[in-house]
Structure formats: structure tokens, C-alpha cells
Fold this protein.
Amino acid sequence: MLSSLPVVPQQYFPEAGSVEPAGSYAPSTVELGDLKRILVRRRLWIIGTAVLLTLATLLYGLLTPALYSSVAEIIIDPQDLQVVTNDVNPSRISPDGGITQVESQVSVVQSTGVLLRAIAATKLTEDPEFNGQGMLSRVLGSGSAATDRTVATLDGLRRRLAVKRADKVLVLDVIVTAKSAAKAALLANAIAQAYLADQASARAQAATDASKAITARLDEQRKRVQQAENAVEAYKSANNMVMAAGNLVSDQELTELNTQLSAAQSRTATLKAQVDQMRKQSGTPDGTSEAMRSSVISSLRSQEATLVDQVSQLGTELGPRHPSMIAAQQQLHDTRQLIARELGRIQTAAETDYERALANQQALEAKVAGLKNKSLDTDQASVRLRELQRDLEAVRSVYATYLQRAQETREQINVDSTNARVISDAMPAQKKSWPPLGLLLFGAMFGGLGLGTGLALIAEYSSPTVLSSAQMQFTIDAPVLGILPAGEKAGRRWWRFGTSPAVATSQKTDAVVGLALRRMFSSGRRPPDWPLVPSILVTSPPEDGQQRNRIARLLANAAAARGSRVLFVDTNASNGQKDPQPGILDVLRGEYAFEAVSRYAPGSNVALLGRGRPKAIFQEAHGVYFAQHMLAQASRSFELVVVDGGALAENLNASPLVAMVDEIVLVARLNATPMRDVKATVQAISVMGRVPTGALLVDEAA
């Protein structure tokens, strides 16, 4: 009997691996609309997380003790006060304008030394808020006598202290937080003053250390000066080198003798020139410059001139033999003899002065020659002496520098050269700084929304669901034929065929179903002369059975509403009968013809074929044969066969129908059907030798 049936051309049926490549569909990415659907579906996660976090924050804000913060401001000038020229703490400004130097002071303010000063000044070790001796500590035993209260107080103060520097300014903000506004202001001011005192103490200590170090070197430098002086004196004594006014006496004598010799030589030369001139004018000695400068000669010449005039006058008046004439002539003669004797005396005196000057010159030349010989002997010794004197001057200079520096550093110990001061004392705060309840609630609310969103996304992607048609197309490698609204949420699983479309479905649903039918049978995969009736098998994951049955009935009802005769096959239900009537399983076993077990629904063009009796398992080859035979016979009476194939991952009895139907439509719910179930269904279809040809999605949010 099997051989008498027509052979089915399997190339018309798309099998596993024979469909279009996956690249023709969009990749499985999440779009903004998908994200919105995830968040809407998991809104309870998001809202619940935000509410819980907000309530926890509110409880924290109401139970947490209030804290107050006070700020003291300190300005620090990188260029310190220039009290002395040679300061122990030199003032240098870095290329960045001192920002780095001031920034380092942030750590100094928070240092142990500064904080211990502030703790001592405020007796903070007796304050339970900071010394770690609270009720809880006493109960737990952490406040025993062995605990160092100072260390605990220091740690507590550090936790409540913040030192900040605003951008591009040289001001440090010392911020202290405490349970009391007055205590916070007191501690902030105490830390600021402790910082100033610490800086002054550090600079004084640096000056003290420098002074001690320099003073310790003074004795050594003094001894070096004494040793250098003794060496110079010993060397001068050993070489008979007498010093006067810093120079050798022999050198001074030689210098003086050279000066005297030069003067003697000049005088000798002058006198020799006079004597030579007088000797050359021996006939007229009165023509020399010495005679001309002599007052005696000048007086005698005046007398001679007077007598010459007198003799001339007397000779004219009295005659040559007159006694007056003779007396005048005698006087003239005597005057001329006196002039001659005076000229001779001048010449003799000049020769005597020349001889004396020449003798003095010769004596000085002899002395100079003797001192020169002695100076040549001391020149070699002077080289070493000058070297010793240079060493002495160097040692004296170093000693003088050390002595002056020691005096300066001793004075700097009591001088504060820091240029830091408090420009704003801390004042008790009027408002609490913690907890900022409004800000915390605001942050908790939005943080809870963000955390809830993250948890929702984690939950979604740990168990992903169908998010969009693009994702579905990529997963099943087939087009999505449409997206339907969820429809009625009543307890009924199905309605009677033949019900008015306005009642059974909305206008939108009817349009989507109609377009889906048109798309399925306009794809061109079914040849015009195909002998089997057009058929659609609707399947889904197990949890989507209600929507699958609804959509299968919608497809049948939509086709019937357009005048087509439809055979509806339900492989998933026995209508609740304890002894079910024969159905599709009996047809696939070859026990009944489908005309004998199908029946028309009242007032409808839809014939119903139930599941039948699952009393025996048929062979798959026989089932495929009888499924083909049924579809061939149905083409005489029906224009469409719609099969509710159930969940194929669990319903293997529908495999013969899977092999023979034209279209296999997968039903899934957006944001509800897990992707693992969709993939399991696709895998089951693939095992049966086919792949889905399309999908219909149900949007429960529509």
C-alpha cells in the first residue's frame, strides 16, 4: 500500500541546514526598546531595591549622631621672612611658584608631632569621643590599662581631620569634625596653632644644631690659625727676616737708599754742570748763573755802576787830577776787586759742593750695592715666606667666617623667620555636616534605582529572554512574521471557532494574523503543482502553550473568516476526556482516515481533529507516510491545515507532521520566554529534520 502513494519531492521542504544564511538577519544585540522592556518587566526589582536602600539610608540618618565640622585657614608664603642675610633656612621659591612647597605642608599639618601638640594643648586624651574608651570599647575590653591612650587618641583625631588646599592658592584648610560644634572649632584652632609652633620650633632647632656644629669647629679653626702664625714667625726668625709694616726691613732700607742715591746722583750731576760752566767761563765768571743769582754780586755791581757814573761826572767837571776824582777812581777800583774776590769765592764754593755731593753719591752707591747682595740672599727665603703668609691669610679668613656664622646662628635661634599665619580662626558650625540626610536620601534613591537596574540586567542576562524580533530572527534563522498583543487574560484557554473576529480578537490582532498568513504562503517555497494541502504547524516552548494554542486558533479562525475551509489539528489536547475519541495519533498509525474522526465546529468552516488515543507508538516512517496521505486527501476538502504541534521538545508524536508541513511557526512571548527554551525548541525541530520557517511573537505589554 505504501508504494501506491505519490512520492514527495523533498526539495520543496526546507530542511535543517538548507535555509538562508544567518548573515541575512540582524545580530542578537540589545536595543534601547529591548532595554526598556527589560526594565519595565523587572520593575519590581528596581523599585524594591531603591525603596530598600532609601529606607536603610533613612534609618541610618535618623540613628547616626550628628557631626559638626569647623575650618581654620592658614596662609603659607613660600618666601620666608628675610631676618638676616645669611639665614640658616634659606628662602627659595620653586619654579611652580611654591605650590609644591605648600602642598608638602599638608602632610606636615597631619604629622604626628603637630597632632600630639594639639592633643596635649586640648587634653584630648581625656575625651571618650577620641581616646577609644567608649562604652563599646570597655565592653569588648579594648580600653584596658595596657592600651596606649595617646595612640588611640591620635588615631581618632586623624580620622576626624582633613587638610586641604584649594587649587592655585597658598591657603591650607584645617577641617576637624566632632560631635560638638564648639569642640570641632577648638580642635581646628589648636591644630593650626600647633602647626605654627612646630614650624617655629623646627627652625629654632635647625639654627641650634647649626650653631653647635659651627661652634664645635671654632676651636679647631683657632688652632689652625695659631699653627700658621707660629710657622710664619719661626721661618722669619730662622732666616733673620725682620718685618716692619708687613715688609722686610732690608727691603725698606734698600728702597730708601735707592731713593737717596737717585737724589744724590741728580744733585752731583747738577753741581758738576755748574762747575764745568764756571771753568769754561773763567775769563768772565760773572756771566754764570750763580753770579747772576748772588745778591752780593748784584750789590757790588750796583755800587760799581754808581761809581762809574760818578767818575765820569767828576772827570768832566774837575779833571783827572782832582782829589775827588782820584778818590772816586780808588773806590771804583776797590769795588771791582771785591767783585772779583766774590766771584772767586762762588766758584770755589761750587767746586766744594760738587766734591761733597760726589763723595756722598759714592758712599750711597756702596751701601746700595751691599744691600743688593743681601737682598739676593733673602729673595729665595721670601718665596717660602709668602707661601706661609698666604696659608695664614686663608686660615684667618675661614676662622673669621666661622666666627661670624656662629654669632649669626646663635641670634637666629630666638628669631621666627616663618611667614605662615592663621588668617581665619575656626568658628562653631551652625549646621551639622553629617549625616546630610537629604543628600543621602537623594543618592540612595538614585543609587537604588541604578543598583536595581544593574540587578535586573544581571538577572536578565543570567537567564535571557526573547527581547526583540531582531534577536529572535538571529536565533532561529527565520523571519518574525508579526508581533501580536497578548489578548484576553481570562481563564479560558480557547474559544469556539466561528466566533466573530470582533469578539475573539482585536482589529490589530486580526490584521497581524492575516499578514502572517499572506507572508507564509507568498514566500515562493511551495510550487504551484504541489499535491498536498497548504499546512502550518505551530509550536512553542512548554511554558508558552496557552499563547501557542491561541495563535493556532487565531490562524485557523482568520483563514476561515476569509472563506477558506480549515482543518485544525490539535496534537496537544484530549479535551479532558478520560476515554478520548480517535484523533490524529490514530490517523498517523493508519487506523482511521481523517475524514472519519474529524468534525466541523458548529457555525464554522473549521474542522477539528483532536489528539486521539496514545495507546501505541507508531513507527516514524509509517507516521510520515500517513501524514503525507492525510495532507494529500485533505487537499480535496480543505484549503488550509493548521496544526497545534505542542512543545516539540516534549511532543515527539508530532514529528511526522513536522516532516510534511509547509510552514513551522515558533511562538514566543517578548520579555518572558527564556532564550534557552527557544533554542531547545529549535534544536528539537532540527533533530526532526527541519528548521523553523517563521515566528510569531506575543507582546504582553501591548
Observations:
- The mean pLDDT is 79.
- Residues 323-412 form the longest helix (90 residues).
- The two ends are 52 Å apart (CA to CA).
